[in-house]
Design the sequence.
């Protein structure tokens, strides 16, 4: 009896559990029925269209690839917080709608379920970010810009994905503890709205806004000469301090959420 009390959610400690890869595959199948990939493709298409229109205006002035590295994080700050929210919300929506948490947790541990859903979000977002960076580079070359160096592409990929994972981690936590999915979606919209204006916020304030980190981790800065109306782009060192901050916040949010979900009474 004593041993059974320590087993969370009435899951027997010696019961066979599916492997993590199998659980992630199951979550992806659930997402397919919710048209998750189609939604991601539509949002990614809108993002790239906005990026392409914005970049085409600059292509008439310069062929410097750094224009692309400056423009894309700005567009990301608007679209990707909402996309990350939609991904995390969709992955958790099936259980919330049908209220099947208790049924699931009789067959697998709460920790395994939480990790499987997080890994599913991470896999989907990594796929989206990879497609985004690759297609953005192709669009840039098509518009007449210089090819973006592979090292710069990697930095952009890591920076973008790290912010997406932080947003998805926070949203997953909300979805697992709040049955009403409207609340997480509102947060995603708010983050996208703040991302639109993050570049106009003071640095001390923008550092408190997760969506502003798309721009804060950019390796390109733009300077504007009011007298001549000319714009110039310059490379700067990768702000790894901001990267360390967002990684720390993601790990902390993940650990606290995992612990709380494992102890939650459903």
Sequence:
């Amino acid at each position: 009896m004593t041993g059974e009390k320590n087993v969370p959610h009435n899951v027997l400690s010696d019961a066979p559990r599916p492997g993590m890869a199998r659980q992630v595959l199951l979550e992806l199948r659930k997402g397919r029925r919710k048209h998750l990939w189609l939604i991601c493709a539509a949002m990614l298409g809108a993002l790239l269209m906005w990026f392409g229109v914005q970049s085409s205006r600059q292509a008439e002035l310069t062929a410097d690839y750094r224009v692309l590295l400056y423009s894309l994080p700005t567009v990301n700050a608007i679209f990707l917080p909402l996309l990350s929210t939609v991904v995390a919300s969709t992955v958790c929506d099936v259980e919330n709608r049908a209220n099947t948490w208790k049924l699931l947790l009789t067959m697998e541990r709460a920790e395994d379920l939480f990790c499987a859903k997080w890994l599913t979000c991470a896999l989907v977002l990594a796929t989206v970010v990879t497609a985004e960076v690759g297609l953005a580079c192709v669009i840039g070359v098509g518009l007449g810009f210089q090819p973006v160096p592979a090292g710069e592409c990697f930095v952009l990929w890591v920076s973008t994905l790290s912010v997406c994972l932080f947003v998805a981690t926070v949203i997953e936590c909300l979805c697992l503890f709040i049955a009403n999915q409207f609340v997480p979606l509102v947060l995603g919209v708010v983050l996208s709205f703040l991302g639109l204006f993050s570049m106009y916020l003071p640095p001390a304030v923008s550092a408190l806004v997760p969506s502003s980190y798309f721009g804060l981790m950019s390796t390109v800065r733009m300077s504007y000469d009011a007298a001549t109306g000319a714009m110039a782009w310059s490379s700067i060192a990768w702000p790894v301090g901001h990267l360390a901050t967002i990684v720390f916040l993601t790990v902390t949010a993940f650990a606290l959420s995992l612990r709380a979900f494992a102890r939650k009474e459903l």
Summary: Strands lie at 220-225, 230-235. Residues 51 and 261 are 39 Å apart (CA to CA). The first strand starts at residue 220 and ends at 225. The chain has a mean pLDDT of 85.
